[in-house]
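Summary for the funding panel

The consortium committed to producing paired sequence-structure records for every protein in the target list. Below we show the first two records in order, beginning with the earlier of the two.
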Amino acid sequence: MSHSLFEDSTPDEVKNAKGLHLITQSTPNGQKVQIMLEELKDLYGLSWTKTIINIMTNEQKKDWFLRLDPNGRIPILVDNTQSPPFPVMETSAELLYLLKFADKNDVLGFTDELERSEALQWLFFWHGSGAPYQGQVNHFTKAAKEKLPYAIERFKNETLRVYGVLEIRLSGKYTGEPREYLAGKGKGKYSVADIGTWPWIKSWSFTGFTDEEMKPFPHLLKWIDRIAQRPAVKRGIGEEYALKQ
């Protein structure tokens, strides 16, 4: 083996994989790439293999994983069609990698440069301004040893503020034209911007937000329901990716 991506402790299914291989757990971040792959399967018949790990046991902090992603976060996508195999970390980068190399018709992206810019803006908006806040709500309400009211309130308020930004976008508050999706002309087109955002927001109830707290976001709630109906989305968050006990 002429490269250093794999070691003796690397699971056989990882180091012997051909083509695309996804190492994941079905968290919101894992679901982003799972959904993207499933959408590409429907569009082009894309195939891949997967390894599902348990991040609660810190499998992603072991040396074999850190060789692929020094940040120790799931998911990690390994493209074994490249020589040597090419690992891609960070969910937005993984979505864009798949868009570049697997979506030849830009069905989930855009050929128009301004629309493409819109998609990148909203993809990065959630990656940088949404997921970190909602993740901290989950941490301080569910995992922290000590419940810190200030931290919980701050991150809940920031997450709701970000939901409000998405509501402005989808409602057409300042354009007069409601949208169905985050990027694209007119009502928009389902794209990587939506795929990279939806898995977190659809979990608003798990995060602890109430129906009352979500009332200010009717267009966002319709967007959640609209995307949830897609067959690839259902598969991408389904039992095929459940952690086996």
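The next record, for a separate protein in the list, is shown here:
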Amino acid sequence: MSNPLDTDAGSELFSSYEAELKLVQADLNQKLDQISELSGEPRKSAIRLAERTLDEANELLGQMRIEKQNIPSAIRSKVNQRFRNFESDIDGQKRKLKTLSDDRKALFGNRYSDNPGSDQQLEQRQQLLSGTERLDRSSQRLRDSQRIANETEGIGRDTLADLQLQRETIQHTRMNMLESEGYVDRSVKTLRGMARRMATNRIITIAIITILVLLIFAVIYSKFH
């Protein structure tokens, strides 16, 4: 089997695919071991389950093939070696499954016949069933993709609504700030006017006091002369 998972030698996503693929491989090995002990309809059902598991393993292997291109070249050699090990393991499992599928006596039990025409019909039926299952899996993937797209669209609408609400809040806050600035400006002008009036009143008061003092001195001076 492949080397142990080394999270220091690859991206987290690649490592996640790697761990998931190991679980799928273990499940596939278990199914292959069970097929050897079955015959007839149970064997055919087990083979179909193993084929679906093998398809899942190949899909994960494809995702890993894409993801490893994003890994820095300095550590890519280690990842490539692990990837080749996985490819070799899956190829071996694929060959084993083919060998088990080609064992017609075990596959069809007492209904097995050496008649080429009968074998051809059974093979065509098996291929038809396999094609139908693949079509069902593809349809399920399309439904899942549609569901994800709808969920994404809903999230996008909610996000746009939140952004619109935030925009309105910011505009309202800005208007309040402008209005507050107007109040501050008017208050400053009022305070400046009051300060000017106070300064003027002070000057007038000082002038009046000065005149009164001068008048007092003039009266005193006139009395003594």
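Regarding this second record: The helical segments are 12-35, 40-67, 73-102, 104-108, 116-224. Residues 1-10 have pLDDT under 50 and may be disordered.
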